[in-house]
Specification:
The chain folds into 2 domains: about 5-165, Regulatory protein AraC (Jelly Rolls, Sandwich); about 175-285, Orthogonal Bundle (Arc Repressor Mutant, subunit A), CATH 1.10.10.60. The chain contains 10 helices and 11 strands. The strands form 3 sheets. A 6-stranded antiparallel β-sheet has the order 2-9-4-7-10-11, with helices on one face. Helix 2 runs antiparallel to helix 3. With about 290 residues, it is of the alpha+beta class. It has helices at about 105-110, 125-135, 140-160, 175-190, 200-205, 210-220, 225-245, 250-255, 260-270, 275-280, and strands at about 5, 15-20, 30, 35-40, 45-50, 50-55, 60-65, 70-75, 80-90, 115-120, 160-165.
């Protein structure tokens, strides 16, 4: 998917560690040449990476490869949104470091992460220790940050379960005009996900025909606009199933599905579980369909 280029930091550095704290995380589709490791501390919503759309919450840990378009969009529930972000370039220890035989396995891990990884841990103590290491980075010297980063990457590569995010290789934009177009479309679809796609409004916004918009979007993202919207709807539905006591039928209609059976099929296709089983597994409250 095509997005806005973001220059990280105000100076030429190969590693940045900082906390992002805002009342909300607005939709901002962008990319940059650095790897990015993000740990969510507070807040929940949707995480969009390449052609992947998933829900996120506290403890969500993701590693993104260079020039991979992404954004976080905070959800329906208000409150603080905090994330720890670590951005680094592969050449942080020189151009040949990760080509050394001793670094071969770590280099393979980083190469596989170019399309994005979300991590989970079977061992809660290792997970807590890793989170603590990440959070101490801003207080350390630059040399200590690099050493701790290598330890973090080694832990992720050796002990964490990595779930691949973007299924297709998404190229960053070449033309500024295309950047603006794809960002406009994605923002529009996310803002109106619970409605039928209003192609008439989009054609007026972009001064393009409906057919041209659909071809452009498919060429840029590898999927149709309907697929994109349905993925976003399922992500919102999963959040509502976990965090609210609304009935499954109510949620289906709230996120824009006019047919309950169709919602069930789409949900199971993307989540591997029916909405009812998903709620029973992950939700705070199980509610039967009336």
């Amino acid at each position: 998917m095509r997005a806005r280029f973001e220059k990280v930091g105000g100076e030429e550095r190969v590693l940045y560690a900082f906390e992002r704290s805002e009342t909300s995380f607005p939709f901002y589709w962008h990319y940059h040449p650095e790897f990015e490791l993000t740990l969510i501390l507070e807040g929940s919503g949707q995480r969009l990476v390449g052609d992947s759309i998933e829900e996120y919450g506290p403890g969500d840990l993701v590693l993104l490869g260079p020039n991979l378009p992404h954004t976080y969009r905070s959800g329906l529930v208000g409150g603080p949104n905090r994330a720890f972000v670590l951005q680094f370039r592969l050449e942080l220890l020189g151009n040949i470091f990760f080509s050394l035989p001793e670094m071969r396995s770590l280099r393979r891990f980083l190469d596989r992460a170019t399309q994005g990884f979300a991590f989970s841990f079977a061992n809660e103590s290792k997970k807590a220790l890793l989170h603590a290491q990440i959070l101490t980075l801003p207080t350390r010297s630059t040399s200590a940050q690099i050493l701790v980063l290598l330890e973090i990457l080694d832990t992720l590569a050796s002990t964490a379960t990595a779930h691949a995010l973007s299924r297709t290789h998404v190229l960053p934009p070449v033309k500024a005009e295309d950047q603006k177009r794809i960002n406009t479309i994605c923002h529009f679809l996310c803002e109106h996900y619970d409605q039928e796609i209003d192609y008439a409004r989009l054609t007026k916004k972009l001064h393009m025909s409906q057919a041209s918009i659909c071809r452009f979007f498919h060429r840029a993202t590898g999927r149709t606009m309907t697929e994109y919207v349905n993925n976003y709807r399922i992500s919102v539905a999963a959040h509502l199933l976990k965090e609210t006591d609304k009935s499954i039928l109510e949620i289906a209609f709230e996120v824009g599905f006019g047919n309950y059976s169709h919602f069930n099929r789409q949900f199971q296709r993307r989540k591997g579980k029916t909405p009812r089983l998903f709620r029973a597994t992950f939700g705070n409250t199980a509610v039967q369909l009336n």
